[in-house]
Amino acid sequence: MIETRAYARAGLLGNPSDGYFGKTISISVRNFGASITLYESPELQIEPQVQDTHIYKNIFHLRDTISTLGYHGGVPLVKASIKKFVEYCDKEGIKLSNKNFTVRYRTTIPRQVGLAGSSAIVVATLRALMQFYKVEIPQPMLPTLALKSEVEELGITAGLQDRVIQCYEGCVYMDFSRDLIEKQGYGYYEPLDPRMLPKLYIAYKTDLSKVSGKVLNTIRERWEQGDPHVVGTLQNIAGVAEQGCDVIKNQDFKRLGELINQNFDYRAQIMTITDRNQALIDTARACGASASFTGSGGSIIGIYRDEEMLNRLFIELKKQNARVIKPFIV
Questions:
Q1: Could you tell me the sign of the dihedral formed by the alpha carbons of 200, 205, 211, 215, in that order?
Q2: Does 330 reside within a domain?
Q3: N or C, which terminus of the chain has less Cβ within 10 Å?
Q4: Domain co-membership, 220 together with 71
Q5: In which domain, by residue range, is 100 found?
Q6: Model confidence pTM above 0.70
Q7: 246 catalytic residue (yes or no)
């Protein structure tokens, strides 16, 4: 019986420049995770979970389920991961033993609120397959393989950031410069000591769920068309992460809070922010905390000064139907 796990993640700085040859800093959030259970069996079987069912209470239940999870559950993610794993082994000349398995997934990661629930399932699946077939995939290449599982197989618009932090864990600075990606297939990944981080909070509300690929699609189109405003703003967002790497090392928390706010303010220049998402940001900042999206929207991250401020965040964000947590990073 093989059991593997991958944790939620929160983008701290640089979001969403990772899909555009930018730079980011992310943390793993061990409060939530996706797990894979895999064991040998006569036939290859993927066990569906509740979210994979096609049985609904009524048309409203169907509507709400699709709005939150999209048209697919986790099974397509597992299938795509298996396919890419096999293709990787074929390309590398790795011969896989002729044995089958049954695989099931579980996840506690709130779906579609910018905490990387989908990629966690993919990373955990790849880890299980590596153990089952005794295959070693170099750590820098594993996030790239995970990304291809979603982008090439399922048509999901995504970047490397989520997969890198879920493979490396902790806190990581990432440089996805075009030269690096095109030359070696992955970027420059520098782990940062999580003990250098200040007091962080995360707040999320599940009723803001959106499929992140859809949220980012218009930015992708404008970037590919060379829209100077979009291209320049994404470069500025990447610059925030680059500055943040040194700021974290110097433990300049005041400046780090400013960069977190700046990250969101840049993002708002090129993306439409819904009123309810903006309310999360405004409420947190009104409490004195910094605030930016952890991902595509639906959850925010920032720095709080002390327990008194954290309590204010709990109280005020609860009025927005948001849950506040302290991320467990290591």
A1: negative
A2: no
A3: N
A4: no
A5: 2-192
A6: yes
A7: no
